Every structure is written in C-alpha cells, then in structure tokens.
Amino acid sequence: MSQVFRAILIIVSVVTFLYIARKLKKSQVEGYDAIFWLVFSAILILLSVFPGIAGAAARLMGIQSTENAVFLIIIFTLLMRSFLMSIRISQLNHKIRLLAEQTAILEKKLDDLDGGMTETGEPYERTYMENSESCESAEESEREKEAVKEATVV
Q: What pTM was estimated for this model as a whole?
C-alpha cells in the first residue's frame, strides 16, 4: 500500500471517526448507526496503520493490489449497509402506513362522536394538516373554490 494512500486513508478515517463521535455526543445520530460508522472508521484506521493486514486479506482473496482489496472491502461493506437500510426503511414505511390508517379510523370515530361539531357548536372543519392531503390536491381544491367563486360572481 502506497504511503500517499495510507495517509489519505488515515486522515479520512480519523475525521470520520471524530465527526460521528461529535454527532453522537450531540444526540444527532442514533446509537446503532453511530456504532457502525465508528467501527467502520476504526477498521479503516487499523488497515492504514498496519498495511500487512490488508495485504494478507488481498492475498487470501486472490487480489494482487492491496488498494484494490481495501476498496473492494469498503464497497462491499457499504453495499451491505445500504441493503440493510433499505430493509429498515421498508419496515418504517409499513409502520407509517399502519399509523396513518389507525389515525384516520380514530378521527372518523371522533367525528362521529362529536357529530361534526366543535365545542362552540360550529361545524368542525379540518385543517390542511389534519386532512393529510398532498400539496397538489390542496392547490387543486383552492383552484376549484376560486373557480366556483368566479362562476357565481359572473
């Protein structure tokens, strides 16, 4: 492994390690995610400080260049991390969908119990956020209201 590559790897790994540690201290990143990045950067520091480890791994994998072995390990690790994050995002999306459905059911039950009236006896109108409409549908409904107003004026 060349001296320049080792120096770059050490600098980037140490900066990454310190950055993630700072974010963890400020509670801006979850512990599970921070642990991955801290361990990942620590392993890269070890590989750059002790290039013999990377050379042995390259020989075991049948790769001639130590740098290529290091890049292969990094790419494989990040691809696995990306795959695991995709699974996690899918699970969270499913939970969000279930929560939205449960919220809609509870709002419907609440409307039925209230009879559609507020505490003052006025008809209850949902706000934009309560309806969970997209921006586009809200804009379309505003345009429709304006069109109806223009038609009634004419």
A: 0.56
